[in-house]
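Problem: given the chain below (97 residues), write out its structure.
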Amino acid sequence: MTRLEIYCDGGCRGNQSDSNVGGWGVYLVWGEHEKELYGGERDTTNNKMELTAAIEGLRAIKNKTVPTDVYLDSAYVLGGIKELPSIRSRHVRFLLD
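Solution.
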């Protein structure tokens, strides 16, 4: 069975300053199908953008039984996932780049 691949990233310029801007992006691949999701906010943090990318990537999964690999570069997000076993499933693997 084809695995769904989800690549997540987020960042913030001027993290924790009075005037900053952040963004997040998700790239989903399933076989020959590709989809991009993205967004941004003002007055945010790097961690919030990293979390938003992971959350939006997981929300985009239409068929929850498809085996899924999630790639991310945030130890903060991965640590949160490991602490919340309710969001883990036998179909999803989280891989830290």
